[in-house]
Amino acid sequence: MIRRRRLRVNETIRALVRETSIQISDLIYPVFVIEGKNQKNPVDSMPGIYQYSLDRIEEELVRIKDSGVKSILIFGIPKHKDEVGSEAYNEDGITQKAIRLIKSGYPEFLVVADICLCEYTSHGHCGLIQNGNILNDETLPLLAKTAVTCARAGADIIAPSDMMDGHIHAIRTALDENGFLHTTIMAYSAKYASGYYSPFRDAVHSAPGFGDRKTYQMDCANAAEAIREVYDDIKEGADIIMVKPALAYLDVIKTVATETDYPLAAYNVSGEYSMVKAAALNGWIDEKKIVLENMMAMKRAGAKIIITYHALDAAAWIKETEA
Ligand code: PBG
Ligand code: ZN
Fold first, then answer.
1. Nearest residue (CA) to ligand 1, atom 8
2. Would the CB of 192 count as within 6 Å of ligand 1?
3. Fewer CB atoms inside 10 Å of the end CB: C or N, the chain?
4. Which superfamily is assigned to 20-322 in CATH?
5. Is the CB of 205 under 6 A from ligand 1?
6. What are the DSSP calls for 127-164, one per residue?
7. Ligand 1 test: best mutation among 29, 95, 116, 277, most atoms within 8 Å of CB?
């Protein structure tokens, strides 16, 4: 008789035949930095997540180091926002300063810089604006400049999240011209216009002042288009590709993983985090089980890398199961 249960009789054999695993080295942890002094502000819609001023960031870096997570994704929140997002490409902007500080104290950390204008523009859009339109080609040089300043500050990976066409080419060219031949590009290739980003927009005050992001981010109805986006980015020079959000787009992750052999990242975004946290804080779900099950789903679908606000908790849980 065929008995599938033979391979399930105890944890040792289950572990022996387990198809998928999550490693601490797969995880990237997002960190929010703000200007000012002595700030550790909770992000209300993301329990457990804070914005740190640079004089307080040490405590968070120690926590990350102790967790075993080695990769962090930096989001800078400037005080000054303007029409053209000047602070994004200021050599001495909050993001650049944070990268320099982190790399000087913790050179072993892999620092990923999110490249976009929306955290820095007064209108909250990811590109330049003219008559209510988000300009594409005019935005490219600013993104390239932002990437170069972050690379100069010490970023190991540049992660453009703006969804302008041609941005990977523009950024790769600028990095190369400035001598940053080994600065890696992780492209937010299939980034959807999603309702799951709203807690993040609270965290960085980047909600668009008018309209929405549907003229540049992808329509959530489309899967085949994700493949075209991914191939564009590969052709333009992306080293790592990304699908975002993760849980509502597992089919896209799976298709991209089967179609390409590039390292693939899944961004388990703020809204996905907040939903789990809210239910867990109400005692409705077991947070550890749900987080690890969700991560397993992303890995099973084909993601190698997971960007997640749960990273430090997950690292502790992964260590427990290995012990
Ligand atoms: C910036 C950016 C966003 C996220 C990452 N980079 C927000 C957006 O596009 O509105 C979302 C991250 C999250 O929700 O966790 N463009
Ligand atoms: Zn943006």
1. 197
2. no
3. N
4. Aldolase class I (3.20.20.70)
5. no
6. S-EETTEE-STTTHHHHHHHHHHHHHHT-SEEEE-S--
7. 116
From the candidates 145, 244, 277, 299, which is the catalytic residue?
Answer: 244
DSSP code string of 172-194:
HHHHHHTT-TT-EEEEEEEEB--
116 CB near ligand 1 (under 6 Å): yes
User: Taking ligand 2, which is a single-atom ion, which protein residues have CB atoms under 5 Å away?
Assistant: 116, 118, 126
Confirm whether pTM is higher than 0.90: yes
DSSP, collapsed to helix, strand or coil, labels residue 25 as helix
Give me the residue spans of the domains in the chain: 20-322
State pLDDT tens for residues 138-176: 999 999 999 999 999 999 999 999 999 999 999 999 999
Does the annotation mark 244 as catalytic? Answer: yes
Q: Tell me whether residue 97 is one of the annotated catalytic residues.
A: no
- The string of pLDDT tens digits covering residues 41-81 is 999 999 999 999 999 999 999 999 999 999 999 999 999 99
* Dist. CA 106–CA 187, nearest whole Å: 24
Q: Which amino acid is at 16?
A: L
